[in-house]
Amino acid sequence: MLESLNLLAVIAAAVVSVIVGSMWYGPLFGKIWIKEMGWTEEEIKKGKNQNMNKAYILTIIASLVSAFVLGQIISGTSTVGAWDGAMIGFWAWLGFGVPLFLSNVLWEGKSWKMFQINAGYQLVTWVLMGAILGAWM
Fold first, then answer.
1. DSSP assignment, residue 4?
2. How far apart are the C-alpha atoms of 130 and 79, rounded to whole Å?
């Protein structure tokens, strides 16, 4: 299975995930996300100075792991292109991502708005990663 995995595709998928995340939690939904987290702009600015590099590094590592695992799943199928890869990304989101974010609402008291922001990001990311990986397999 490893020999059929295109590592360049994994890296590209991870990069796309980071780019989408910076847009999603920045200009697109950043202000709503900050409000739903119960933070203030001042807290965000202070936190940026203290933990930003560590958060970015761990986010990049997490994106690489996610792309690698999704690539492993896709390479073990008869995927024939971007569309099939995107569909596998969608089903992975529906089967794994949605239940995780739903438990945050049901058990941790997170808002439905937070669910929509986080689950929406994962949907877009996993579908795009799946399309990239499926196209390059």
1. G
2. 10
